[in-house]
Design goal:
Layout lengths: L27 E7 L5 H11 L14 H8 L4 H12 L5 E7 H13 L14 H11 L6 E7 L3 H14 L4 E2 L14 H24 L5 E4 H6 L1 H11 L12 E2 L4 H19 L1
Parallel strand pairs: 1-2, 1-3, 3-5
Antiparallel strand pairs: 4-6
Helix pairs in contact: 4-5, 5-7, 6-7, 6-10
């Protein structure tokens, strides 16, 4: 079981997950656009296990970037990107990355200023040119991008999942593991409401980014992926122009349980009262 997104036991972060050395920029980049607890890790692991479409990870965010930088010791962000291309591009020429909205904004900011983003991302949507500038800032790092956007239909359950993972320190568990799931956590209406707001802002920013840049994405809904895992993956691979394949069963175990449902239901009831004033 992995107790944190920072865990060094996460197999896809290991050197054994590196591909044979790739020379030059990737032929294509698979960009998984998401918000935490949207099913993006479930999707990323399914893609990684095929070996054909790279190893999607949050390479530019706090959970994984320090681990890779400690291993490779790049001089700067440009060298870090070059090493990623060299070691994480599949033999098919595909490099894959998972991006949260804050990760994209922070990456673009660091490219422009040389320093990571310190403040929170803006809540208000940007003018179209702002989203075009963001796309331009990442263009050379993500050649020939193909964008997949995964969302969770039940964003209250997603917010509860974030709250519970943050409080317990347990973000995911392996299928077949006998280890217990996260213990019950304290209910916190204000904190869950904050997470709901972040989810909705993130999804809105992604949609505005796609519209401003006229990007055709492949949308995936977590609930559909969970209920029809091979069918959703087959549709994605067809859209990507990849040959049909037999997908291994999910390697992750669902963590939501009756306690998660109780927290979500209490929040819905409290939010209804809050909305009435």
């Amino acid at each position: 079981m992995i107790r944190s997104s920072h865990s060094r036991d996460y197999s896809v972060t290991q050197t054994t997950a590196d591909f044979p050395e790739w020379h030059g920029p990737p032929a294509r980049t698979l960009v998984l656009c998401a918000h935490p607890r949207s099913g993006s890790t479930l999707l990323a692991e399914a893609i990684a296990t095929t070996g054909r479409l790279g190893r999607p990870l949050e390479y530019f965010q706090a959970g994984h970037r320090p681990l890779f930088e400690a291993r490779w010791k790049p001089a700067d962000l440009l060298e870090y990107v070059a090493i990623l291309h060299r070691r994480r591009t599949a033999p098919t020429g595909v490099f894959a990355v998972k991006l949260f909205w804050r990760g994209l904004v922070s990456f673009a900011h660091e490219r422009a200023t040389g320093a990571p983003l310190a403040a929170d991302i803006p809540e208000a949507l940007l003018p179209d040119q702002g989203y075009r500038d963001l796309a331009a800032a990442i263009a050379d790092a993500f050649p020939a991008p193909m964008f997949v956007h995964i969302v969770r239909r039940d964003f209250i359950a997603q917010a509860v999942s974030i709250h519970r993972a943050t409080q317990s320190g347990i973000w995911l568990a392996r299928a077949g593991s006998n280890a217990p799931g996260p213990a019950p956590v304290r209910y916190d209406f204000a904190r869950i409401l904050e997470y709901v707001g972040r989810i909705r802002r993130s999804n809105a920013h992604w949609q505005a980014f796609f519209r401003a840049n006229r990007i055709a994405t492949y949308p995936i809904v977590y609930e559909d992926l969970a209920s029809d895992y091979p069918g959703v993956l087959a549709g994605l691979f067809e859209w990507l122009g990849e040959p049909a394949t037999v997908f291994a069963p999910p390697r992750l175990r669902k963590l939501a349980d009756a306690h998660s449902e109780a927290l979500a239901q209490r929040f819905r009831e409290d939010f209804a009262r809050f909305s009435r004033g």
